[in-house]
């Protein structure tokens, strides 16, 4: 299969027959509704993705020095800022630019950047004049009334760019006042925090995703930085380097980005795109122009950019697509599944089951892995697991688990026990004492007898040498391997034994089993 290496971008221009001073442009979420302005001119709108345009300034009257424009996600609500010096204001539209209202409650100031919540009700703008008290202003009623935000750290700045989350709660603004930087708010502009992650730098251009977690900033003659924690920390996109970054736009999820490189006297400007949250970038090969700003649809597949001299260009992006290949990884039979489809970056792909009955001798199939050595990411092969397509083709290798060898059966002989079933007996004559073995559960092959007088072992008699001596716990003073039978043993009575307690300890042995008993008596005065 053939996998495109990059997205395909097609640029088109259908600008009104006025070819100068084009500055700002904004887009609805689906890219259908566009609104653009000329710096010292009128506002124009399009309801067909830029194919045709309408001069929307009839209800505005005279031309204005427009500085910023924003749109609700459906393109119905528009707001535009204007002004020079220390005076200016805001116009809003609730009908996609057909009619406009000058908001009397808006600040009379040279207002610059402006951003909107998804429904258009929450607006935020900042002043750009060269005088003191350059504030940020917010509105929560579609621009009818405004609140100046004079909280610590957010006043007397010349605001360059402003962005808003879809609900209007998270805001970000870049500024220059001799040093420059970035500030963010998580409470609709009531309080602001200076973010050190971008450093002290000016002319920062900004984009935010819909939930306000991902920010992208670019600096003229500087770097591009990306944050995934609402501006707390930033990471430099080192592959881009220092360029004349002048504008950036983001899809609603922050995956698709568009970035304008303004170029210089030696290198023309360019518009770059990324489909993996800024990890990699592709030149869209846009026409050479004096690019000013860029806006994006919610899915990031429709762009509109303003060329100062030549008007508004639109682009449709066909995302790069990549394939997924399954490899047998040493299988001895069966076939791998085949997926002939291609997928865009970020697409959720159902991982195939083992439909071809792959097998490997001595192993069981255990799913798929992104590494042949099974050190990558594993996926189960039930047909229910999914993977997210990266910005490159994916190869999945069969994963195998060795079948353990069959257990070795060891036959263990069962040893019959030597269980005492009758106590031994002691018999005295005038000269001898005899100890009888007693009865056991099986006939003994040999026996051991130990005679104990008081607490002293006198001697041990073995019927034969079949029993290892280490099995015998009673080591008498003498050991006799012949003066006994398998049933009894005798000792000559010593005069010193008379009247003392005598014990006979017996040990019977047969078929690797032993049993023991004991019996006691007092030596009579014979």
Radius of gyration: 47 Å
User: What count of structural domains?
Assistant: 3
Summed over residues and divided by their number, the pLDDT gives a mean of: 87
Distance between the termini: 114 Å
What proportion of the residues form beta strands (DSSP E)? 35-45%
Structural class: mainly beta
Largest sheet: 8 strands, antiparallel
Q: Helix tally? A: 0
CATH superfamily of the largest domain: YVTN repeat-like/Quinoprotein amine dehydrogenase
CATH class term of the largest domain: Mainly Beta
Contiguous uncertain segments of 5+ residues: 1-5
CATH A-level architecture of the largest domain: 7 Propeller
Oligomer: single chain
CATH fold field value of the largest domain:
Methylamine Dehydrogenase, Chain H
Helix percent reads under 10%
Number of strand segments: 47
* General shape: elongated
Outline the structure in words.
A hairpin with a 6-residue loop joins strand 15 and strand 16. The chain contains no helices and 47 strands. Strands 19, 20, 21, 22, 23, 24, 25 and 26 form an eight-stranded antiparallel sheet that branches. The protein has 526 residues and is mainly β.
């Amino acid at each position: 299969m053939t996998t495109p290496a990059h997205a395909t971008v097609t640029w088109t221009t259908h600008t009104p027959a006025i070819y100068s001073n084009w500055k700002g442009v904004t887009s609805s979420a689906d890219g259908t509704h566009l609104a653009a302005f000329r710096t010292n001119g009128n506002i124009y709108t399009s309801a067909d993705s830029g194919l045709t345009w309408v001069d929307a300034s009839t209800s505005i009257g005279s031309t204005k020095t427009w500085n910023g424009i924003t749109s609700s996600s459906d393109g119905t609500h528009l707001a535009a800022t204007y002004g020079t010096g220390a005076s200016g204001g805001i116009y809003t539209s609730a009908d996609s630019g057909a009619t406009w209202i000058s908001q009397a409650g808006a600040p009379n100031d040279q207002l610059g950047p402006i951003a909107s919540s998804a429904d258009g009700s929450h607006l935020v703008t900042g002043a750009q004049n060269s005088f003191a008290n350059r504030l940020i202003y917010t509105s929560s009623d579609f621009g009818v009334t405004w609140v100046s935000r004079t909280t610590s750290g957010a006043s007397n700045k010349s605001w360059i760019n402003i962005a808003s989350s879809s609900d209007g709660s998270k805001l970000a603004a870049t500024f220059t006042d001799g040093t420059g930087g970035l500030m963010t708010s998580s409470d609709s502009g009531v309080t602001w925090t200076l973010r050190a992650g971008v450093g002290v730098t000016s002319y920062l251009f900004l984009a935010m995703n819909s939930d306000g977690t991902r920010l992208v900033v670019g600096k003229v003659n500087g770097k591009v930085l990306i944050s995934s924690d609402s501006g707390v920390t930033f990471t430099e996109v080192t592959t881009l380097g220092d360029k004349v970054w002048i504008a950036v736009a983001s899809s609603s999820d922050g995956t698709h980005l568009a970035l304008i490189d303004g170029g210089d006297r030696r290198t023309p400007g360019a518009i770059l795109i990324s489909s993996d949250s800024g990890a990699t970038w592709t030149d869209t090969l846009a026409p050479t122009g004096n690019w000013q700003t860029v806006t994006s649809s919610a899915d990031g597949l429709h762009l509109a950019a303003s060329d100062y001299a030549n008007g508004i260009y639109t682009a449709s992006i066909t995302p790069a697509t990549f394939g997924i290949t399954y490899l047998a990884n040493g299988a001895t039979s069966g076939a791998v599944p085949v997926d002939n489809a291609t997928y865009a970056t970020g697409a959720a792909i159902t991982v195939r089951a083992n439909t071809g009955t792959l097998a490997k001798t001595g192993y069981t199939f255990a799913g798929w892995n992104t590494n042949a050595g099974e050190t990558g990411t594993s996926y189960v092969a039930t047909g229910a697991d999914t993977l997210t397509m990266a910005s490159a083709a994916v190869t999945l290798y069969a994963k195998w688990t060795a079948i353990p060898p069959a257990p070795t059966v060891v036959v263990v002989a069962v040893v019959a026990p030597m269980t005492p079933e009758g106590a031994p007996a002691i018999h005295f004559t005038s000269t001898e004492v005899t100890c009888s073995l007693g009865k056991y559960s099986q006939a003994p092959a040999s026996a051991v007898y130990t005679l104990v007088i008081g607490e002293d072992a006198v001697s041990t008699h073995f019927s034969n040498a079949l029993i290892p001596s280490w099995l015998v716990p009673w080591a008498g003073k003498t050991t006799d391997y012949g003066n006994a039978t398998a049933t009894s043993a005798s000792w000559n009575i010593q005069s010193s034994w008379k009247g003392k307690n005598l014990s006979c300890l017996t040990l019977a042995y047969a078929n690797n089993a032993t049993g023991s008993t004991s019996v006691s008596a007092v030596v009579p005065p014979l």
